[in-house]
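Protein modeling request. Please complete all fields; requests missing the sequence field cannot be processed.
Requester role: graduate student
Desired output: 3D structure, token encoding
Chains: 1
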Amino acid sequence: MSGNFEEKIKNYRTAPFDARFPNTNQTRNCYQNYLDYHRCKKVLSAKNQKTTPCEWYRRVYKSLCPIAWVQKWDEQRQSG
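Delivered output (80 residues):
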């Protein structure tokens, strides 16, 4: 199972269609994947598990979100 998932991440090119966000404007999709990545990482780290599955969310938000937004959100997370 994990080998198959890691293969999907390796072959990842761009964000796939997500039925939760059918519109052209992908702002919500971008932000949701950013949140999902950090939640996933937090939960799996707390359980002392590998955070490899979280990489999917990171790749999706990196392909959808403008860099300036990500930097702003990172700064906000660091400041609490």
